[in-house]
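User: Design a sequence. Structure:
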């Protein structure tokens, strides 16, 4: 009898929750969970389309990103549409830069290809080669044969969301295997000169932040992210200019056998998965 009374007291199911209540629940979930719940029934599907559900998942600078990356007015798009576009890697500035959002946190990350940097002697094939590579986000890396003077510089103007960011150079000692022989180990024959003097990494911002680090390049045959420094953004409405560099300009010796892929900028909390090198 007790069981019968209990059954009589149970009314409806998930589909009878008011749509506004469902939307408030979904707003507390992360994006992958919202998408899973949206498949339960029509009520959850409709609730998952609400702008306020997705606005909290977007970075604070999303309006700037929509205009910058898609040349579109944010007011013409739903917040779900904007999130969907930004959650995929988006190239800009002649495909030399790429932005993507971490799906769970909504934090923005950026990679700048070596093609978007100023590299001394980069077009002289005696010093540098441009190599196709599946290990790069941009499917291409710059390989250094040998130079006396190494200088790589970059500059960026951007409206970042408020937070603390880290900047890294992604490098590898050793020439990667070719597409025809992808299982071959890195060729280390040309690696030389990096143990004599450290490489100097430097970064400065238009609001007065500055960082310098030095590091001997030691790790062979694997990609390593060399930390340049951190910077803080307080207001996403104010564009920030960042200048950064990697140099080894001691001309007493040559150095070579280095691969340069890209520069990575990401929130400090997102840098845990990077393979980092110890700096001096």
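Assistant: Done.
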């Amino acid at each position: 009898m007790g069981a019968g009374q209990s059954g009589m007291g149970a009314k409806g199911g998930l589909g009878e929750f008011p749509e506004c209540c469902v939307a408030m629940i979904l707003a507390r979930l992360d994006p992958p969970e919202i998408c899973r719940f949206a498949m339960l029934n029509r009520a959850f599907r409709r609730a998952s389309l609400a702008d306020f559900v997705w606005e909290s998942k977007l970075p604070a600078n999303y309006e700037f990103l929509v205009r910058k990356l898609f040349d579109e007015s944010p007011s013409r798009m739903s917040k779900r549409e904007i999130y969907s576009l930004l959650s995929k890697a988006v190239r800009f500035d002649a495909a030399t830069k790429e932005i993507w959002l971490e799906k769970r946190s909504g934090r923005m990350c950026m990679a700048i290809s070596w093609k978007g940097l100023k590299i001394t002697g980069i077009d002289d094939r005696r010093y540098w080669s441009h190599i196709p590579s599946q290990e790069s986000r941009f499917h291409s890396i710059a390989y250094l044969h040998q130079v006396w003077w190494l200088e790589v510089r970059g500059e960026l103007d951007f409206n970042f969301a408020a937070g603390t960011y880290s900047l890294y150079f992604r490098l590898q000692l050793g020439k990667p295997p070719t597409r025809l022989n992808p299982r071959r180990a890195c060729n280390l024959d040309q690696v030389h000169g990096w143990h004599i003097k450290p490489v100097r990494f430097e970064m400065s911002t238009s609001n007065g932040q500055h960082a310098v680090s030095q590091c001997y390049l030691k790790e062979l045959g694997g990609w390593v992210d060399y930390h340049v420094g951190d910077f803080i953004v307080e207001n996403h409405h104010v564009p920030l200019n960042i200048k950064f560099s990697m140099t080894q300009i001691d001309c007493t010796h040559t150095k070579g056998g280095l691969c340069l892929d890209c520069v990575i900028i990401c929130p400090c909390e997102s840098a845990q998965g990077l393979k980092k090198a110890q700096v001096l």
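The mean pLDDT is 86. The longest helix spans residues 62-70.
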